[in-house]
Amino acid sequence: MVNLEDIRREYEHPPLMEEEMDENPVVQFQEWMDLAIKYYKSDSNAMILSTVSGSGQPSSRTVLLKNVTKAGFVFYTNYNSRKGNEILLNPHVALLFYWPGLDRQIRIEGKAEKVGSEISDKYFNSRPEGSKKSAIVSPQSEEIEDFLAFKEKWEFLVDKENLERPENWGGYEVFPDYFEFWQGRKNRFHDRIAYKKIDKHEFKFQKVRLAP
């Protein structure tokens, strides 16, 4: 068995200076995302979404970021899934992006709200046929007794001409009130630059440095 305590490496990167970070955290996010896409392409937009149940039990899973607006971050899912039900009870969520090759991560905290039906329709119609079928057929997060019967139901939709978006599937936009940009550094002396929202009505943030 591998001794996990022995797994370690150094992070060799130049310092992350707050004066070089954009005053708008979404602009700064896009800069880091563009670099990640340049180096990794596929799955650069993968993010950990954390939600909390009505009893206070947190849960996390990986979803894909599908759009960045001037004020938020959009992903799509089944509204009746576990995450959908938890967002209904408590819309406060957390997002985490991590790019190991760049030794960078971004934490985002905010409130999730459903996007308009026209936005969900437009994205759904852009998806491959197989993805549309999965969204229509799957009772996401629910237990299924017969996987073969479930698969047959999916295959039955091959002959269906119009694969329309089901009402229980669509997008959420996360409106952030906190960002943290992390850069791995030598000797675990990591750089952490946080943006804290300072105005409830305007998109204004205070930029601060956090201890490693």
Describe the protein's architecture and organization.
This protein is an alpha+beta fold and 212 residues long. It has a single domain (16-210), classed as Pnp Oxidase, Chain A, CATH 2.30.110. Helix content is 25%, strand content 33%. It has 5 helices and 9 strands, in the order αββββαββαααβββ. The chain has helices at residues 25-40, 82-89, 117-126, 129-137, 147-156, and strands at residues 46-52, 58-64, 67-68, 73-78, 92-99, 104-114, 169-183, 191-197, 205-210. Strands 1, 2, 3, 4, 5, 6, 7, 8 and 9 form a 9-stranded antiparallel sheet that branches. A hairpin with a 4-residue loop joins strand 3 and strand 4 (73-78). Helix 4 (129-137) crosses helix 5 (147-156).
